Amino acid sequence: MSIALIILAAGKGTRMNSDLPKVLHRIAEAPMLVHAMQAGAALEPDHTVIVAGHEAEAVADAAQEHDETARIVLQEEQLGTAHAVAQAQAELEDYTGDAIVLYGDTPFIRPETLEKMAAARAAHDVVVLGFEAADPGRYGRLVVEGSALTRIVEFKDASPAERAITLCNSGVVMAPAPLLFDLIAEVGNENASGEYYLTDIVGLARARGLSASAVTCDEAETMGINSRAELSVAEAAFQARARAEAMKNGVTLVAPETVHFAYDTHLGRDCLIEPNVVFGPGVTIETGAHIRAFSHLEGCHVARGAVVGPYARLRPGTELSEDSRIGNFVEVKNALIGEGAKVNHLSYIGDAQVGRDSNIGAGTITCNYDGVMKHETRIGERVFIGSNTMLVAPVSVGDDAMTGSGSVITQDVAAGALAIGRARQVEKPGLARKLFELLRAQKVRKTQKEMD
């Protein structure tokens, strides 16, 4: 089935009290809009159309950063959901497949739910997503007769009997694109809000003798985000679900409630994740890796058997090979750490390649930035880098080489060589005692002067 996504993302989100458009507020390190796009992507759409309004340029940038093929249309006036969907018509003028309407501030619709809607569309002209609400509140109500959906009534326009209905409208709708826009053209604004409601298309379709049906999902999937408080609830809901899913898939979380996932975190079976670990975007951890407590990872790949932390930071571009070790207070950025290599203590390795079975001593820094350009450090296999070595890039250290502790290495080191680059130690007999006596006398004089 061919399908197009229409995602409504034009709202300002006044209750957010923010300069940022509502749909760009983040859950699990990604804008809400991206979550909606990611769910819709499971249907393998032919087209994705984002209806933007408030801060449209920022919304467009975020959408196209995630999917460069997404098309952006502008809703200049906020006249209701039917009016918003109508703005996508020009982009889908000749499209004859189905269209599904999603919402940029409703980030948790599951791909499986959208697939259920697509299956229902094979038997019905219009399909609406509904949910049984514990507290229906001011949601629109779905009025059904048997298995048929007859109409959707907005709360403001509902009778007491209709308000007693607990089957509520999520706003998500699927129909053939030409039919969708044809029905929208008939929608009026004679209602309590004076808006053009997308929900009216169900009644209009029925009046034509077309069929409409409702597919239901869990209420949690339809959570809309309108305030900072709801944003925090949504974040907690995402994290709880991600943790449960990880453990179901064979990951050990020692203290699940302390581990923070990003929207795209991938963990292999038999990974061990200790407390207070934060996964930023773009992290893949392979089977059997061990992430120790208080580590922060983003934009990196950790191979099987590798150990990270505690208190380690892996930044974008980091690639840890099998059985490598990154220890406490080590930061790695845009670097390949070879199989079995170790960076165990208090080091910064950036823009570097570290070969198989090399050992990087405590306090080592790859000095990769000259104030304008970044430069690379290449360390071969079975190399021993002595503690407190400064490797001033661009520089390379050959296989089986060694650097002396406290060295500043500014030139390439040949394979098998020992490089020492430090000042010669000079000793002045008795000078320390004389210096201490001088300093103590100065301190006494200063104290007496302050008292006077």
Describe the structure concisely for a colleague:
By secondary structure, the chain is of the alpha/beta class. The protein has 2 domains: 3-221, Alpha-Beta Complex (Spore Coat Polysaccharide Biosynthesis Protein SpsA, Chain A); 228-419, UDP N-Acetylglucosamine Acyltransferase, domain 1 (3 Solenoid).
Q: What's the quaternary structure here?
A: single chain
Structural category? alpha/beta
Q: Biggest β-sheet, characterized?
A: 11 strands, parallel
Question: What Rg, in angstroms, do the CA atoms define?
Answer: 31 Å
Strand content: 25-35%
Give the helix level as a range of percent.
10-25%
Mean pLDDT: 95
At the fourth level of CATH, the homologous superfamily of the largest domain is Spore Coat Polysaccharide Biosynthesis Protein SpsA, Chain A
| Total count of domains | 2
What can you see in these coordinates?
Strands 13, 15, 16, 18, 19, 21, 22, 24, 26, 29 and 32 form an eleven-stranded parallel β-sheet that branches. The longest helix has 21 residues, at 228-248. It is built from nine helices and 35 strands. A hairpin with a 2-residue loop joins strand 2 and strand 3. The protein folds into two domains: 3-221, Alpha-Beta Complex (Spore Coat Polysaccharide Biosynthesis Protein SpsA, Chain A), CATH 3.90.550; 228-419, UDP N-Acetylglucosamine Acyltransferase, domain 1 (3 Solenoid). The protein starts with a strand and ends with a helix. The chain is an alpha/beta fold. It is elongated. Homotrimer. Residues 1-228 are annotated as: Pyrophosphorylase. Residues 6-132 form the MobA-like NTP transferase domain.
